[in-house]
Design brief:
It contains 9 helices and 15 strands. It is α/β, with parallel strands linked by helices and 336 residues long. The longest helix is centred in the middle third of the chain and has 13 residues. The mean pLDDT is 97. The structure holds NADP nicotinamide-adenine-dinucleotide phosphate (NAP).
């Protein structure tokens, strides 16, 4: 076992798009596990959009990262030392202490995972938090019903690609997605089976959505906010529902963004616009694992992962994900 481990610290609060200088990779001594603790060699680290919010010193649903302290986030690793009942050396676990090579984890905060049915990295993506977000957000929050026309933004990402496919599998009349490149748009239609897709950088979202959904939409799954939300409010049919999952278009904003200018339409159309957090829907997890796991095994639900190698590239992977470099889930891989 090496004597030292590297971990990322936030050293300055970003203003706008984060810069490499806002982060520092620091070396610490590898600690020994105390009673009830395990030492984990991290193998896969998650980078997620919500982490951008944690870099700001504001009150939110998760506390901000502290300056000059290790950052954290979803991670999967192998147990290399254990002082906890029920978890043995060699077990694989999912836990919340990413952004580092070795993690000292309280056993109560680690979940044993099985590498046999699915690759370990999928516990951070299609079978993990983003997957459950898609499942709960579409089926419970947006109250999806067979025959609905569904629009999802951020459609080639971890959450969005799953939303569109679940809608198709559950009998949507039509599924439309938007993404930030022609390559992603092609993927949505040809690989994921969306009925229509458009590149939001190629023209106004409202116009492109109007062409893709001439009869309007019943459900909007919002990953982006801004002009996407405004276009969706205009396109939603009577009693339409929007699940407000994320608004990544404004995560790096330095000024408060304008609200949708057409919100008054929600009254006459009796729209439901409902925000949600995946953490409120963990009761759906067993059902989600069974149903989505089954679709993956049967080859009916596809997923992509974009891997970036090495702890030294953790920040690059995060910034790349915010820029749209990823197809599907962005994951950092560390050597065994
Ligand atoms: P992701 O979609 O895999 O990656 C982020 C994607 O956002 C990028 O690939 C990029 O794709 C897109 N993007 C970046 N800037 C954009 C902009 N200005 N306009 C439009 N698209 C932009 O990330 P994810 O993990 O699946 O998360 C998707 C959304 O769900 C995020 O908003 C996140 O905050 C939210 N989320 C919410 C919950 C919850 O509990 N509510 C849980 C998980 C995630 P393009 O190339 O298409 O631009």
């Amino acid at each position: 076992m090496p004597a030292t481990s590297r971990e990322w610290h936030l050293v300055a609060r970003p203003h706008g798009v984060p810069a490499l200088a806002d982060f520092a990779l620091r070396e610490i001594e590898v600690p020994e596990p105390g009673p009830g603790q395990i030492l984990v060699r991290n193998l896969y680290l998650s980078v997620d959009p919500y982490m951008r919010g944690r870099m700001n010193d504001v009150k939110s649903y998760v506390p901000p990262f502290q300056l000059d302290r290790p950052m954290d986030g979803g991670a999967v690793g192998r147990v290399v030392a254990s002082n906890a009942e029920g978890i043995a050396v060699g077990d694989h676990v999912l836990h919340g202490l990413g952004w580092r090579e070795y993690a000292l984890v309280g056993a109560a905060h680690a979940v044993k995972i099985d590498p046999a049915p699915a690759p370990l990295s999928t516990y951070l993506g299609v079978l993990g938090m983003p997957g459950l977000t898609a499942y709960a957000g579409l089926l419970r929050v947006a109250e999806f019903a067979e025959g609905d026309t569904v629009f999802v933004s951020g459609a080639a990402g971890a959450v969005g690609s799953q939303v569109g496919q679940i809608a198709k599998l559950k009998g949507a009349a039509r599924v439309i997605g938007s993404a930030g490149s022609d390559e992603k748009v092609k993927l949505l239609v040809e690989e994921y089976g969306f009925d229509a897709a458009f590149n939001y950088k190629s023209g106004p979202v409202a116009e492109q959505l109007g062409q893709a959904a001439p009869d309007g939409i019943d459900v909007y799954f919002d990953n982006v906010g801004g002009d996407h939300l405004e276009a969706a409010i205009s396109a939603l049919n009577l009693h339409g529902r929007a699940a407000l999952c994320g608004m990544i278009a404004q995560y790096n904003a330095t000024e408060p963004p304008p609200g949708p200018r057409n919100l008054a339409l929600a009254i006459g159309k009796r729209l439901t616009l409902r925000g949600f957090l995946v953490s409120d829907h963990h009761d759906l997890r067993p059902q989600f694992i069974e149903e989505v796991g089954g679709w993956i095994r049967e080859g009916r639900l596809r997923y992509y992962e974009t891997f970036v190698e090495g702890i030294e590239n953790n920040v690059d992977a995060f910034l790349g994900m915010l820029r749209g470099d990823n197809i599907g889930k962005m994951v950092v891989t560390l050597p065994e």
